[in-house]
Amino acid sequence: MVAKKTKDDSPIGPTGRPYQGFPIPAPLKAHGPARIIALCNQKGGVGKTTTSINLAASFAEYGRKVLAVDFDPQGALSAGLGIPTHDIPTVYDLLLDTKRDPREVIVHTHVDGLDLIPANIDLSAAEVHLVNEVARETILSRVLRQVAGEYDVILIDCQPSLGLLTVNALTAAHGVLIPLECEFFALRGVALLIETIDKVRDRLNPSITLDGLLATMYDARTLHSREVLERVVEAFGDDVLETVIGRTVKFPDASVSGVPITEFAPEHPAAQAYLRLARELVARGAVA
């Protein structure tokens, strides 16, 4: 990925900026309160779940206590972490019964320091059930508030839509991370998503910030990928993260095995990219 160099011989990364080596985060002396980050994009297939799994595992590898929240009825995050979701309580139960203790639903994964609130197809009925609830946009926020003190970061894997579930995630979150496939049609919906974030900030969650846009499925060999990434950087500047996630068959292989790529193939460039992403977000102050 690194090819050109600046005048002072610094390598240039795919985003056209000097390629930095972000430092390994210092260990934490205590855990919590968590910073909540929603991974959103109403377009499907852009790497939200892959990023949720591998970024969560990367934070855990650096000693952070992480809670991943599967907020997609497809349950791909749960499956990607090897957690069966049949006949167990899920995030759907917490939304319908806010007096229920979230700790009854949280599942410990095989990754040290990484816990999960699972989801399954039941979640698809949540919007219908919640539509007549008072303050329906804040229900997830009230659920996560009960356990935020026990974690350093909470990652919410949103479904590919801008419906009530996604608005709940944005209302609960301190920051938003937007995975963006390096493909022309993926660009078209970003403005609508940014507009939705602005509306949530204006009406429901004044403190929400954009933590960054993450370029995914990047293939430096294709002119199209390079041009799309260039246009994203032109449009969003420093909001585009310097870390770029390349396209590789290792991601589906790791998903089938039910483990993050950082465990499935720890030396692979994709695994190293997610570790670098975790370091970059810590360096940017998005996570302690």
Average pLDDT reading: 91
Strand order of the largest sheet: 3-4-2-5-1-6-7-8
SS-based structural class?
alpha/beta
What are the low-pLDDT stretches, counting only 5+ consecutive residues below 50?
none
Global shape: globular
Strand content: 15-25%
Describe the structure.
The chain is α/β, with parallel strands linked by helices and 288 residues long. Helix content is 37%, strand content 16%. Strands 3-4-2-5-1-6-7-8 form an eight-stranded mixed β-sheet, with helices on both faces. It is globular, with a radius of gyration of 18 Å. The model has no long low-confidence stretch (mean pLDDT 91).
In terms of topology, how is this protein built?
Elements: E1 35-39, H1 48-61, E2 66-71, H2 76-80, H3 91-96, E3 107-108, E4 114-117, H4 126-130, H5 139-145, E5 153-158, H6 164-172, E6 175-181, H7 184-188, H8 190-203, E7 209-218, H9 223-236, E8 240-246, H10 250-257, H11 261-264, H12 269-283
Parallel strand pairs: 1-5, 1-6, 2-4, 2-5, 6-7, 7-8
Antiparallel strand pairs: 3-4
Helix pairs in contact: 1-12, 5-6
